[in-house]
Target: Sn-glycerol-3-phosphate ABC transporter ATP-binding protein UgpC
Amino acid sequence: MSELNLTDVAKSYGPVDVLKNINLDIEQGELIVFVGPSGCGKSTLLRMIAGLEKITGGTLEIEGQVMNDVPPAQRGIAMVFQSYALYPHMTVRENMAFALKIAKMPTAEIDAAVDRAAQILQLEPFLDRLPKALSGGQRQRVAIGRAIVRDPKVYLFDEPLSNLDAALRVATRIEIARLKEAMPDSTMIYVTHDQVEAMTLASRIVVLANKSIAQVGTPLELYEAPDNEFVAQFIGSPSMNLLSGTITGTGEMTTVELSSGGIARSAVPTEDSDLGKKVNIGVRPEDLAMTEESAILSGKVDFTEALGEVTLLYFEKTNGADAVIAKLPGVQRNLRGQTVSVTAAPDKVHLFHNGLSMRK
Ligand SMILES: Nc1ncnc2c1ncn2[C@@H]1O[C@H](COP(=O)(O)OP(=O)(O)O)[C@@H](O)[C@H]1O
Ligand SMILES: [Mg+2]
Model:
Protein backbone atom coordinates (compact mmCIF):
# COMPACT_ATOMS: atom_id res chain seq x y z
CA MET A 1 0.00 0.00 0.00
CA SER A 2 1.26 3.42 -0.91
CA GLU A 3 1.51 6.13 1.68
CA LEU A 4 -0.41 8.56 -0.50
CA ASN A 5 -2.63 7.99 -3.53
CA LEU A 6 -4.10 10.71 -5.68
CA THR A 7 -6.66 9.44 -8.17
CA ASP A 8 -8.02 11.80 -10.82
CA VAL A 9 -7.68 14.68 -8.38
CA ALA A 10 -9.01 17.96 -9.73
CA LYS A 11 -9.41 21.52 -8.51
CA SER A 12 -11.56 24.26 -9.92
CA TYR A 13 -12.56 27.65 -8.64
CA GLY A 14 -16.07 28.00 -10.02
CA PRO A 15 -15.78 27.53 -13.78
CA VAL A 16 -11.98 27.89 -13.76
CA ASP A 17 -10.02 24.61 -13.80
CA VAL A 18 -6.71 24.91 -11.97
CA LEU A 19 -5.78 21.19 -11.86
CA LYS A 20 -7.24 18.05 -13.41
CA ASN A 21 -6.36 14.37 -13.95
CA ILE A 22 -3.77 14.31 -11.17
CA ASN A 23 -2.83 10.65 -10.68
CA LEU A 24 0.08 9.96 -8.37
CA ASP A 25 1.18 7.25 -5.92
CA ILE A 26 3.75 8.16 -3.30
CA GLU A 27 5.56 5.48 -1.29
CA GLN A 28 6.57 5.79 2.34
CA GLY A 29 10.02 7.35 2.71
CA GLU A 30 9.97 9.20 -0.59
CA LEU A 31 10.87 12.85 -0.98
CA ILE A 32 8.65 14.02 -3.81
CA VAL A 33 9.29 17.44 -5.32
CA PHE A 34 6.59 19.37 -7.20
CA VAL A 35 8.04 21.77 -9.75
CA GLY A 36 6.46 23.83 -12.49
CA PRO A 37 6.01 27.39 -13.67
CA SER A 38 4.56 30.00 -11.35
CA GLY A 39 0.78 29.66 -11.08
CA CYS A 40 0.65 26.04 -12.32
CA GLY A 41 -1.00 24.84 -9.12
CA LYS A 42 1.87 23.54 -6.98
CA SER A 43 0.67 25.23 -3.78
CA THR A 44 -2.94 24.36 -4.56
CA LEU A 45 -2.09 20.66 -4.86
CA LEU A 46 -0.10 20.73 -1.64
CA ARG A 47 -2.89 22.56 0.18
CA MET A 48 -5.43 19.99 -1.04
CA ILE A 49 -3.26 17.22 0.41
CA ALA A 50 -3.03 19.19 3.67
CA GLY A 51 -6.79 19.73 3.76
CA LEU A 52 -6.50 23.51 3.60
CA GLU A 53 -8.18 23.59 0.19
CA LYS A 54 -11.23 21.60 -0.90
CA ILE A 55 -10.67 18.83 -3.46
CA THR A 56 -13.27 19.36 -6.20
CA GLY A 57 -12.80 16.03 -8.00
CA GLY A 58 -11.17 12.63 -7.51
CA THR A 59 -9.86 11.04 -4.32
CA LEU A 60 -6.95 11.52 -1.95
CA GLU A 61 -5.99 8.54 0.18
CA ILE A 62 -3.41 8.45 2.97
CA GLU A 63 -2.46 4.91 4.03
CA GLY A 64 -5.46 3.60 2.14
CA GLN A 65 -7.99 5.85 3.85
CA VAL A 66 -9.95 8.40 1.83
CA MET A 67 -9.10 11.84 3.18
CA ASN A 68 -11.16 14.18 0.99
CA ASP A 69 -13.41 15.29 3.83
CA VAL A 70 -11.12 14.66 6.81
CA PRO A 71 -10.11 17.88 8.64
CA PRO A 72 -6.42 18.90 8.35
CA ALA A 73 -5.56 18.08 11.96
CA GLN A 74 -6.69 14.46 11.55
CA ARG A 75 -4.74 13.69 8.36
CA GLY A 76 -1.39 12.98 10.03
CA ILE A 77 0.36 15.64 8.00
CA ALA A 78 2.41 18.70 8.93
CA MET A 79 3.05 21.65 6.67
CA VAL A 80 6.04 24.02 6.65
CA PHE A 81 5.41 27.29 4.85
CA GLN A 82 7.62 29.79 3.09
CA SER A 83 7.05 32.39 5.82
CA TYR A 84 7.89 30.65 9.05
CA ALA A 85 5.71 32.85 11.31
CA LEU A 86 7.17 31.90 14.69
CA TYR A 87 5.57 33.33 17.84
CA PRO A 88 7.95 36.23 18.63
CA HIS A 89 7.38 36.23 22.40
CA MET A 90 8.03 32.50 22.78
CA THR A 91 11.39 30.79 23.00
CA VAL A 92 12.47 28.20 20.49
CA ARG A 93 11.42 25.45 22.93
CA GLU A 94 8.03 27.06 23.50
CA ASN A 95 7.47 27.56 19.79
CA MET A 96 8.17 23.91 19.09
CA ALA A 97 6.09 22.71 22.06
CA PHE A 98 3.08 24.91 21.37
CA ALA A 99 0.96 22.58 19.20
CA LEU A 100 1.59 19.66 21.58
CA LYS A 101 0.55 21.76 24.58
CA ILE A 102 -2.68 22.70 22.83
CA ALA A 103 -3.20 18.98 22.19
CA LYS A 104 -2.74 18.45 25.96
CA MET A 105 0.17 16.05 25.59
CA PRO A 106 1.85 15.23 28.95
CA THR A 107 4.80 17.54 29.71
CA ALA A 108 7.39 14.76 29.80
CA GLU A 109 6.35 13.59 26.33
CA ILE A 110 6.43 17.15 25.00
CA ASP A 111 9.95 17.64 26.35
CA ALA A 112 11.10 14.38 24.78
CA ALA A 113 9.58 15.30 21.39
CA VAL A 114 11.15 18.78 21.44
CA ASP A 115 14.55 17.42 22.49
CA ARG A 116 14.49 14.84 19.71
CA ALA A 117 13.56 17.46 17.10
CA ALA A 118 16.18 19.88 18.43
CA GLN A 119 18.81 17.17 18.14
CA ILE A 120 17.87 16.27 14.56
CA LEU A 121 17.90 19.95 13.60
CA GLN A 122 20.95 20.87 15.70
CA LEU A 123 18.93 23.48 17.54
CA GLU A 124 19.93 22.37 21.06
CA PRO A 125 22.09 25.47 21.78
CA PHE A 126 19.21 27.79 20.86
CA LEU A 127 16.27 26.28 22.76
CA ASP A 128 16.01 29.18 25.22
CA ARG A 129 16.41 31.97 22.69
CA LEU A 130 13.66 34.12 21.23
CA PRO A 131 13.20 34.00 17.41
CA LYS A 132 14.59 37.54 17.02
CA ALA A 133 17.97 36.27 18.27
CA LEU A 134 18.16 33.67 15.47
CA SER A 135 19.33 33.86 11.87
CA GLY A 136 16.87 33.26 9.02
CA GLY A 137 18.11 29.72 8.53
CA GLN A 138 17.80 28.91 12.23
CA ARG A 139 14.25 30.28 12.27
CA GLN A 140 13.35 28.09 9.33
CA ARG A 141 14.76 25.12 11.26
CA VAL A 142 12.51 25.96 14.21
CA ALA A 143 9.55 26.03 11.81
CA ILE A 144 10.57 22.56 10.62
CA GLY A 145 10.99 21.54 14.26
CA ARG A 146 7.37 22.45 14.95
CA ALA A 147 6.42 19.92 12.27
CA ILE A 148 8.80 17.20 13.49
CA VAL A 149 7.49 17.23 17.10
CA ARG A 150 4.08 16.24 15.81
CA ASP A 151 5.60 13.10 14.27
CA PRO A 152 3.45 13.31 11.13
CA LYS A 153 3.10 10.59 8.48
CA VAL A 154 3.71 13.13 5.74
CA TYR A 155 5.63 16.42 5.74
CA LEU A 156 4.60 19.12 3.29
CA PHE A 157 6.98 21.94 2.43
CA ASP A 158 5.89 24.92 0.32
CA GLU A 159 9.00 26.71 -0.98
CA PRO A 160 10.55 26.70 2.52
CA LEU A 161 13.81 28.29 1.38
CA SER A 162 12.59 31.04 -0.89
CA ASN A 163 12.90 33.76 1.78
CA LEU A 164 16.56 32.96 2.40
CA ASP A 165 19.51 34.58 0.64
CA ALA A 166 21.53 32.56 -1.87
CA ALA A 167 24.28 31.29 0.44
CA LEU A 168 21.83 30.35 3.17
CA ARG A 169 19.62 28.58 0.66
CA VAL A 170 22.45 26.25 -0.25
CA ALA A 171 23.30 25.57 3.39
CA THR A 172 19.67 24.96 4.33
CA ARG A 173 19.12 22.76 1.28
CA ILE A 174 21.91 20.50 2.46
CA GLU A 175 20.36 20.49 5.95
CA ILE A 176 17.05 19.36 4.51
CA ALA A 177 18.82 16.57 2.64
CA ARG A 178 20.47 15.50 5.92
CA LEU A 179 17.17 15.84 7.76
CA LYS A 180 15.58 13.44 5.28
CA GLU A 181 18.45 10.99 5.79
CA ALA A 182 17.92 11.20 9.55
CA MET A 183 14.25 10.35 9.07
CA PRO A 184 14.32 7.72 6.30
CA ASP A 185 10.75 6.49 6.93
CA SER A 186 9.17 9.94 6.77
CA THR A 187 7.42 10.86 3.57
CA MET A 188 7.98 14.39 2.33
CA ILE A 189 6.43 16.48 -0.41
CA TYR A 190 8.38 19.57 -1.27
CA VAL A 191 7.32 22.40 -3.57
CA THR A 192 9.94 24.58 -5.20
CA HIS A 193 10.56 26.50 -8.38
CA ASP A 194 14.31 26.05 -7.84
CA GLN A 195 15.73 23.46 -10.21
CA VAL A 196 18.78 22.73 -8.13
CA GLU A 197 16.64 22.01 -5.06
CA ALA A 198 14.48 19.71 -7.13
CA MET A 199 17.40 17.85 -8.69
CA THR A 200 19.34 17.42 -5.44
CA LEU A 201 16.58 16.66 -2.94
CA ALA A 202 14.01 14.62 -4.83
CA SER A 203 13.66 10.87 -4.92
CA ARG A 204 11.16 11.65 -7.69
CA ILE A 205 10.15 14.92 -9.32
CA VAL A 206 6.60 15.69 -10.42
CA VAL A 207 6.56 18.31 -13.19
CA LEU A 208 3.26 20.18 -13.25
CA ALA A 209 2.19 22.06 -16.37
CA ASN A 210 -1.00 22.88 -18.22
CA LYS A 211 -3.16 21.95 -15.20
CA SER A 212 -1.80 18.43 -15.09
CA ILE A 213 1.28 16.26 -14.59
CA ALA A 214 3.75 16.58 -17.48
CA GLN A 215 6.03 13.79 -16.20
CA VAL A 216 7.02 11.97 -13.01
CA GLY A 217 10.47 10.47 -12.61
CA THR A 218 13.76 10.48 -10.80
CA PRO A 219 15.77 13.67 -11.39
CA LEU A 220 18.08 11.93 -13.85
CA GLU A 221 15.21 10.23 -15.69
CA LEU A 222 13.73 13.66 -16.35
CA TYR A 223 17.11 15.03 -17.40
CA GLU A 224 18.11 12.14 -19.64
CA ALA A 225 14.77 11.01 -20.99
CA PRO A 226 12.15 13.78 -20.98
CA ASP A 227 8.78 12.59 -22.31
CA ASN A 228 7.89 15.87 -23.94
CA GLU A 229 9.29 19.22 -25.02
CA PHE A 230 7.92 20.97 -21.95
CA VAL A 231 9.86 18.78 -19.51
CA ALA A 232 12.88 18.81 -21.84
CA GLN A 233 13.04 22.59 -21.63
CA PHE A 234 11.93 22.95 -18.00
CA ILE A 235 14.64 20.70 -16.51
CA GLY A 236 18.21 21.89 -17.09
CA SER A 237 19.72 25.33 -17.37
CA PRO A 238 20.14 26.87 -19.88
CA SER A 239 17.17 25.05 -21.45
CA MET A 240 17.52 22.27 -23.98
CA ASN A 241 17.81 23.66 -27.53
CA LEU A 242 15.02 22.63 -29.91
CA LEU A 243 15.69 22.79 -33.66
CA SER A 244 13.10 21.96 -36.30
CA GLY A 245 13.85 19.57 -39.15
CA THR A 246 12.74 16.62 -41.25
CA ILE A 247 13.62 12.95 -40.84
CA THR A 248 15.66 11.91 -43.87
CA GLY A 249 17.13 8.64 -42.63
CA THR A 250 15.58 5.95 -40.40
CA GLY A 251 16.68 2.78 -38.64
CA GLU A 252 18.79 2.20 -35.54
CA MET A 253 20.20 5.68 -36.14
CA THR A 254 17.94 8.52 -37.29
CA THR A 255 19.10 11.36 -39.51
CA VAL A 256 17.39 14.75 -39.37
CA GLU A 257 17.99 17.57 -41.83
CA LEU A 258 17.50 20.76 -39.91
CA SER A 259 15.70 23.86 -41.21
CA SER A 260 18.76 25.87 -40.22
CA GLY A 261 20.88 23.84 -42.66
CA GLY A 262 22.62 21.53 -40.19
CA ILE A 263 22.37 17.79 -39.90
CA ALA A 264 21.73 15.76 -36.75
CA ARG A 265 22.09 12.09 -36.01
CA SER A 266 20.08 10.63 -33.15
CA ALA A 267 20.40 7.26 -31.44
CA VAL A 268 16.60 7.19 -31.10
CA PRO A 269 15.54 4.45 -33.56
CA THR A 270 12.82 5.18 -36.13
CA GLU A 271 10.90 3.19 -38.73
CA ASP A 272 10.45 3.57 -42.49
CA SER A 273 7.06 5.17 -41.88
CA ASP A 274 8.80 8.01 -39.99
CA LEU A 275 10.62 9.15 -43.14
CA GLY A 276 9.70 12.74 -44.02
CA LYS A 277 8.19 13.49 -40.60
CA LYS A 278 8.57 17.02 -39.28
CA VAL A 279 10.31 16.80 -35.92
CA ASN A 280 12.22 18.88 -33.43
CA ILE A 281 15.57 17.64 -32.29
CA GLY A 282 16.49 18.48 -28.72
CA VAL A 283 20.06 18.94 -27.60
CA ARG A 284 21.27 20.29 -24.27
CA PRO A 285 23.77 23.20 -24.34
CA GLU A 286 26.26 21.08 -22.36
CA ASP A 287 26.04 18.27 -24.93
CA LEU A 288 27.17 20.49 -27.81
CA ALA A 289 30.87 20.51 -28.67
CA MET A 290 32.87 22.26 -31.37
CA THR A 291 33.51 20.19 -34.47
CA GLU A 292 35.26 20.42 -37.83
CA GLU A 293 32.97 17.85 -39.39
CA SER A 294 29.25 17.65 -40.15
CA ALA A 295 27.53 19.89 -37.66
CA ILE A 296 24.14 20.32 -36.06
CA LEU A 297 24.75 24.02 -36.33
CA SER A 298 27.29 26.28 -38.00
CA GLY A 299 26.59 29.84 -37.07
CA LYS A 300 27.89 33.15 -35.94
CA VAL A 301 28.42 33.55 -32.22
CA ASP A 302 26.37 36.59 -31.32
CA PHE A 303 27.25 36.82 -27.65
CA THR A 304 29.28 34.94 -25.04
CA GLU A 305 29.20 34.63 -21.26
CA ALA A 306 32.36 33.45 -19.53
CA LEU A 307 31.47 31.90 -16.19
CA GLY A 308 34.95 30.52 -15.57
CA GLU A 309 34.04 26.85 -15.26
CA VAL A 310 32.09 27.07 -18.54
CA THR A 311 31.57 29.48 -21.43
CA LEU A 312 28.11 30.01 -22.91
CA LEU A 313 27.90 30.73 -26.63
CA TYR A 314 24.71 32.34 -27.94
CA PHE A 315 24.35 31.78 -31.69
CA GLU A 316 22.70 34.26 -34.00
CA LYS A 317 18.99 33.51 -34.37
CA THR A 318 17.85 31.88 -37.59
CA ASN A 319 14.33 32.15 -39.06
CA GLY A 320 12.59 33.18 -35.87
CA ALA A 321 13.72 30.20 -33.77
CA ASP A 322 15.16 30.66 -30.28
CA ALA A 323 18.88 31.34 -30.18
CA VAL A 324 20.85 28.12 -29.86
CA ILE A 325 23.07 28.05 -26.79
CA ALA A 326 26.20 25.93 -26.37
CA LYS A 327 27.90 25.43 -23.02
CA LEU A 328 31.57 24.67 -23.55
CA PRO A 329 33.90 23.60 -20.76
CA GLY A 330 36.36 26.07 -19.29
CA VAL A 331 37.36 29.47 -20.65
CA GLN A 332 36.91 29.99 -24.39
CA ARG A 333 38.27 33.33 -25.52
CA ASN A 334 37.62 35.38 -28.63
CA LEU A 335 34.68 33.41 -30.02
CA ARG A 336 32.27 36.33 -30.23
CA GLY A 337 31.63 37.25 -33.85
CA GLN A 338 33.26 34.04 -35.13
CA THR A 339 31.51 31.34 -37.12
CA VAL A 340 31.55 28.18 -35.04
CA SER A 341 30.31 24.64 -35.79
CA VAL A 342 28.88 22.50 -33.01
CA THR A 343 27.51 18.99 -32.85
CA ALA A 344 26.50 16.35 -30.27
CA ALA A 345 26.91 12.61 -29.82
CA PRO A 346 23.87 10.74 -31.25
CA ASP A 347 22.87 9.42 -27.82
CA LYS A 348 22.51 13.04 -26.65
CA VAL A 349 20.15 14.00 -29.48
CA HIS A 350 16.48 13.77 -28.48
CA LEU A 351 13.65 13.54 -31.03
CA PHE A 352 10.22 15.09 -30.58
CA HIS A 353 7.18 14.76 -32.85
CA ASN A 354 4.15 16.93 -32.08
CA GLY A 355 5.83 17.88 -28.80
CA LEU A 356 6.21 14.28 -27.60
CA SER A 357 9.38 12.21 -27.37
CA MET A 358 9.79 9.59 -30.13
CA ARG A 359 11.79 7.38 -27.75
CA LYS A 360 9.79 4.18 -27.24
N1 LIG B 1 -8.88 31.45 -4.30
C1 LIG B 1 -8.62 31.38 -5.62
N2 LIG B 1 -9.55 31.72 -6.54
C2 LIG B 1 -9.31 31.65 -7.86
N3 LIG B 1 -8.14 31.23 -8.39
C3 LIG B 1 -7.16 30.88 -7.54
C4 LIG B 1 -7.34 30.94 -6.12
N4 LIG B 1 -6.17 30.51 -5.53
C5 LIG B 1 -5.33 30.23 -6.55
N5 LIG B 1 -5.90 30.45 -7.75
C6 LIG B 1 -5.29 30.21 -9.07
O1 LIG B 1 -4.84 28.88 -9.11
C7 LIG B 1 -3.66 28.78 -9.88
C8 LIG B 1 -2.61 28.00 -9.14
O2 LIG B 1 -2.11 28.76 -8.05
P1 LIG B 1 -0.95 28.21 -7.10
O3 LIG B 1 -1.31 26.84 -6.67
O4 LIG B 1 -0.75 29.23 -6.04
O5 LIG B 1 0.30 28.17 -8.09
P2 LIG B 1 1.84 27.90 -7.77
O6 LIG B 1 1.99 27.56 -6.33
O7 LIG B 1 2.23 26.79 -8.70
O8 LIG B 1 2.57 29.17 -8.15
C9 LIG B 1 -3.24 30.20 -10.22
O9 LIG B 1 -3.58 30.46 -11.56
C10 LIG B 1 -4.05 31.04 -9.27
O10 LIG B 1 -4.36 32.28 -9.85
MG1 LIG C 1 3.00 28.48 -4.75
